Amino acid sequence: MTSLSSSTLTTTGNGLDRSGTSAEGTGSGRPKKSPVLSAVKSVAKHVLLIAAGLLMLYPLLWMAVSSLRPNDLIFRQPGLWLKTLHVQNYSEGWTALAQPFGRYLLNSAIVVIGAIVGNLVSCSLAAYAFARLRFKGRKIWFAIMLLTIMLPVHVVVVPQYILFSQLGWVNTFWPLVLPKFLATDAFFVFLMVQFIRGIPRDLDEAARIDGCGHLKIFWHVILPLMLPALATTAIFTFIWTWNDFFTALIYLTSPDMFTVPVALRSFIDSTGGSNWGAMFAMSIVSLLPVFFAFLFGQKFLIKGISTTGIK
Amino acid sequence: MSVVGELNSLRRPKGAKKGEKEESPDNKAGYLFLAPWLIGLFLITIGPMLASLYLSFTDYNLIQPPEWIGLDNFHRMLGDSRLLNSLKVTFTYVFVSVPLQLALALLIALVLDRGMRGLAFYRSVFYLPSLLGSSVAIAILWRQIFGTSGLVNQVLGHLGVQSPPGWISNPDTALSTIILLHVWTFGSPMIIFLAGLRQIPRMYYEAAEVDGAGTLTRFSKITLPLLSPIIFFNLVLQIIGAFQSFTQAFIVSGGSGGPSDSTMFYTLYLYQKGFGQFDMGYASALAWLLLVIIAAFTVINFIAAKYWVFYDD
Amino acid sequence: MTTRDFVISRRGALKLGLGATAAVALTATGCGSGGGAGGAKNADGKVELRLTWWGNDTRNANTAKLVEAYQKANPNVVIKPESGEWASYWDKLATQVAANDAPDIIQMDEKYIREYGGRGALLDLAKNGLDTSKFAPGTVKPGESKDGLMGINAGVNAPVILANPKVFKAAGVDLPDDKTWTWDDFKRIAVEITRKSPKGTYGSTSPMANDATLSGFLRQRGKALFTEDSLGFEAADAQAFYDWIMELQKAKAIPSPDEVAEDDGKSLDQSSFAIGKAGFGWVWSNQLNAYDAASGEDIKILRYPSQTGKAADAKLWYKASMFWSASSRTKNAEEVVKFINWLSNSVDAGAIQTTERGVPPNLDVREKIADKLTKSDKKTIAFIEAIEPELGDTPLPPPVGAGNFPDIQKRYGQDVIFGRSSSADAAKKLIDEVKGNISSAS
């Protein structure tokens, strides 16, 4: 990895060449000097990126291979070479738990969709207020918001569990979704604040002079301009919620409410026998939605300012 | 006025406020936009925080009611050698892994930002490790790679290295494998950098090109200043996150912080005290000490930001 | 999965707050009259009981069958299953108990039985009428303390040394006679296997790998791990234990410190004994099934050695592989105990469970299910029954504040094997730390 970073250093200059359009796959920049040198550079870069990519891919490959091995061979055969295809892991894994695995995927999907909508709406509203509006107590609220990120989770688990159990919301999705609608993921509020601050003020000033209210400016000027930040928020919310184990563990008690990460642990018993093959198979299955969400989401991510009509 | 200015003026006595008085023409709109967050803050955030603050002054074993003991928990910290060790481990981790990960994330983001063949593919591949989350699979994989007869040692063996250590299970090397695991998941800051790069208006670059500015000039005069709010964001959040780091250590050591406490992160220690030893009063006190440490670093960050973060407002 | 990812993904949990009512509830926990949902009657007038356990998918399916059978026989009861996995199970249980929302029936472990029981969170089963008349001698005791019967043995367990015949054969070493072998025999055989096996295979796993070993070691010195409310041994005993480990290590009877620490973090079926890289393994008897399956071998089950070569001097003991406990705050103590009674004593329940949670302590049940047992089960039961006449006293579970003793002991053990601390220092610090924990918890 270090060799990669040092060699990419030399290409960072090129990396800044914005002559390509925002869409991808438009070729490696505009050759300015020698075309041969440029081609060599380009090839070298791809080779390096692919090498680094393999390093990144290794875990996935290993998981995929393990998901196709019989249970007793997973830890006895190292390496990525498969002698047999033990596809039963998939069919067995799908049905091994109290509910078909699809149920857990569905539960996770419900929570994830709720969380994404909640975070996008509530965090962007709060961020607009912090970044653009002048109101009393703004600094103090901002500082408090940052403070809420700083306390380790483990000491607030119990008080907050008490709250939700008093509300009768244990074993429902509310404790997982509702907080998102109340912008409790301060991380994203701060993220969006930083993005909004990067948007030239002239743009909303102009709108304001035209007589637009804050809601209009927020909706028609700021939101379209912060599409990359919104995409980032959506992607991260998707992935972090999809992978979130602890909250789901604490609040969802009955097996038919489990989300994917909780269900996956049901295959494992560290003090006895574990169903590793099924666990890996279902891990792969549950990785697919995340992967596609990312592939889809990053299309929005790279839609920069250039595509929103403002230059 | 920048966020820095705001925080600074927070620290100043009222009379000494810089120049013009803050106007608040958007009071109503401000609180309307902030309403969901404020509701969340008061309904579900502040309560547990205050509860944990209260518990830090009590002897609380989770099962019986808390008992007020004043500052005893904080006194106890002074003689707690394992706490000192966990601080050492955590600080090492923060100061090594955060700069490494951010530098790597920024470099890759810069490379991947420009139009090139296979961009979407590379981006996805580099983000992959972050997709896997804190899954059990990662824990097993990491042990497979860095075990005594794992992938790394097999390669080293072929290179003729005699009896390399068991990276994860040796107290001298265990922490470095966790740092590596953290750096390896540079996908999240990379994505944020990418989004930030995309938001830099093209017109600046075009104007610079017309003026004949070279790539390095464009990087230092346009990219760096315009990306600085995002770099700042990543820095602040990464430091906060690294101080609270839990998962990696939990995964790699199976929650023990071992071998020999060499990967006993602060939050892991706190967790063991609270849930393993039913000493939630002490754990709460530990949490608030950590909050003070993190807040101090964040304030320093905000003050330093005055000199290098550029806002267009 | 950066740190932040995790922290943030958990932040949902962090942010949730505490209303005024909740704050009251927090200070009210332990008063025994809170509003937990457990044990309430549901809309149909049926008694609703919450049942929680840890385990893998096999146990989950098995437990679902138990629940189904019980509900069929007792139509007035609805049992809500809440399954979990070992590591996270305890976080969840602690949170639920703290919030006065504990499940009615709780699968419990020796490590935590006093932590909960000693603080009043568990029901005295004996006082509430649990029938243990058919239990094998010595099998009820592990759940007893001065607070009463805090949990009933759900499966009989004993500390054992397993031997992998394949490793022995490959090394050309004979299996020992476990009725007469001594500690010197153990060391000699282990050293011989290491010497005659391929690189990376050792005579034995580290005795430190299992929390029973120190207990067994102390018992043979006339000491015990715990007394009713403190430690039952001194620094000199712990030092002797660490010295013995170092001796085995220097003789290469056990793997290197790196390998030992690594093995420690692995789950059962990844461990060096399970994959055939060790001749002897220090485990609990109820793990034999899993080791048979993971290794694919017909693993042999052996008694601990003794100093004298007499099996009775090995001072073996019965442990509960796990307990059935009940929340002291249940609203339906009667129905809860009735259910636990059925789990413990009914042949129907036994027929469904067989030995999934360990060898049934109830002798009638054990006899009636004999024809349903696998080969591994039969080996285990034969062993459990064979050692019964040789058993020493039943050791006490860790007192309040000492539940994490195995972790502490392991940490100091690692200090010693990695040369970071002398055995004398480590032993002294071990005693100090555990005694400190016990006194601050009481």
Automatic annotation (TrEMBL), chain A:
Segments of this protein annotated with the region Disordered: 1-34
The reply on keyword Zinc is no
Where is it localised? Cell membrane
Ranges annotated as spanning the membrane: 47-65, 104-128, 140-164, 176-196, 217-239, 276-296
Biased region (Low complexity) positions are: 1-12
Q: Start and end of every ABC transmembrane type-1 domain?
A: 105-297
Q: Can you name the source organism? A: Microlunatus panaciterrae
Gene3D superfamilies linked to this entry? MetI-like (1.10.3720.10)
Q: Which UniProt keywords apply?
A: Cell membrane, Membrane, Sugar transport, Transmembrane, Transmembrane helix, Transport
Q: Please give the family membership noted in the entry.
A: Belongs to the binding-protein-dependent transport system permease family.
Q: What is its main location?
A: membrane
Q: Tell me what this protein is called.
A: Multiple sugar transport system permease protein
Q: How does it sit in the membrane?
A: Multi-pass membrane protein
Q: Which InterPro entries does the record match to this protein?
A: MetI-like, MetI-like_sf
Automatic annotation (TrEMBL), chain B:
Region Disordered: which residues?
1-25
Which keywords accompany this UniProt record? Cell membrane, Membrane, Sugar transport, Transmembrane, Transmembrane helix, Transport
Q: How does it sit in the membrane?
A: Multi-pass membrane protein
Instruction: Report whether Membrane shows up as a keyword of the record.
Output: yes
- Primary location recorded for the protein, binned into one broad class: membrane
Q: Any stretches that span the bilayer, and where are they? A: 31-57, 91-112, 124-142, 174-197, 224-243, 283-309
Q: Which Pfam families match?
A: BPD_transp_1
Q: Which domain of life is it from?
A: Bacteria
Location relative to the cell: Cell membrane
Any idea where the ABC transmembrane type-1 domain is?
87-301
Q: Which family does it belong to?
A: Belongs to the binding-protein-dependent transport system permease family.
Protein name per UniProt: Multiple sugar transport system permease protein
Upper classification of the organism: Bacteria, Bacillati, Actinomycetota, Actinomycetes, Propionibacteriales
UniProtKB/TrEMBL annotation, chain C:
* UniProt keyword terms in alphabetical order: Sugar transport, Transport
Query: In the UniProt record, does the keyword Transport occur?
Result: yes
Q: Which is an annotated Pfam family here?
A: SBP_bac_1
Looking at the keywords, is Transport present? yes
Q: Which domain of life is it from?
A: Bacteria
Q: SUPFAM superfamilies this protein is in? A: Periplasmic binding protein-like II
Q: Which InterPro entries match?
A: Bact_solute-bd_prot1 (IPR050490), SBP (IPR006059), TAT_signal (IPR006311)
Q: Which residues form a coiled coil?
A: none
| Protein name as annotated | Multiple sugar transport system substrate-binding protein
Q: Which organism is it from?
A: Microlunatus panaciterrae
